[in-house]
Amino acid sequence: MLRTVTATRYVTSLREGGSLPAIIEADDAGLYVVKFRGAGQGAKALIAELIAGELARAVGLRVPELVLVELDPALGRNEPDSEIRELLKASAGLNLGLDYLPGSVTFDPLAGPFPSAEEASTIVGFDAYVTNVDRTPKNPNMLSWHKDLWLIDHGAALYFHHSWEDWEARSQSRFGPIKDHVLLPWATALAAQESSMRERLTREVVERTVAAIPEEWLTSVESPFPTAHAHRAAYVTWLSRRVEALPAFLEEAARARAQLV
């Protein structure tokens, strides 16, 4: 289960993309990079962040701690920026925070530090699993912190849930966009990922992760499902069937890498 903290101070906006994440101080004295449910991408981006972040941790990758952040819209009443005031007002309730890593820098594929073949292959395989289109040289969404790679920003993953059209069939996708993955040149151990991911991404792990999604996120988004319970069950089904598709999308990643070298 994710911890829940209460936002006590709005520190600064990060002004990244159109979602206006911010550094927030919470009642545990911690600093968190918060993604707001009232941003343009809505609660579905937070659902993708939570699922992908926790499953990445399950396969052994480094992800800053994720917490649920309770936000009182009054927190922004003295904020001079009207856009930020409106964002905080629209984000009352639970939002998602990532532990702030002070001094971290964005991973540079030209300067490193570079990952091992095993780590790169695990990250490539995992991103293919969650259909993450947003780990490219232009936008790596990885931080280098104490010489280790940390994964961030998974809101673009699981993009099937924006429409849920043919979602069961799409769970078997070979995921062609993996060809643009920033770590593909280092991913020389893709063949070893099938058994490792299958062992770690059990149905129990998937169910536990999906169970952590706040019900208010599920009921605040458009979906074809009549209840939050059915909505959760669909995520579990898609993620479990995605494990069954491991051979196909890992083969696609290996094929894409072969074209690079």
Topology:
Blueprint: E1 3-13, E2 22-26, E3 31-35, H1 42-58, E4 66-71, H2 82-90, E5 93-99, E6 105-106, H3 117-129, E7 142-145, E8 148-151, H4 167-170, H5 193-200, H6 203-211, H7 215-219, H8 228-244, H9 246-258
Parallel strand pairs: 1-4
Antiparallel strand pairs: 1-2, 2-3, 3-5, 4-5, 6-7, 7-8
Helix pairs in contact: 1-6, 3-9, 6-8
Number of helices: 9
Shape: globular
Residue stretches low in confidence (pLDDT < 50, at least 5 long) are: none
Estimate percent helicity: 25-40%
- For the secondary structure, the number of strands is 8
Give the CA-CA distance, first to last residue: 42 Å
Strand order of the largest sheet: 1-2-3-5-4
The total number of structural domains is 2
Element string (H = helix, E = strand): EEEHEHEEHEEHHHHHH
Secondary-structure class: alpha+beta
Major sheet summary line: 5 strands, mixed, barrel
Percent strand equals 15-25%
Output mean pLDDT: 95
C-alpha-based Rg, rounded: 18 Å
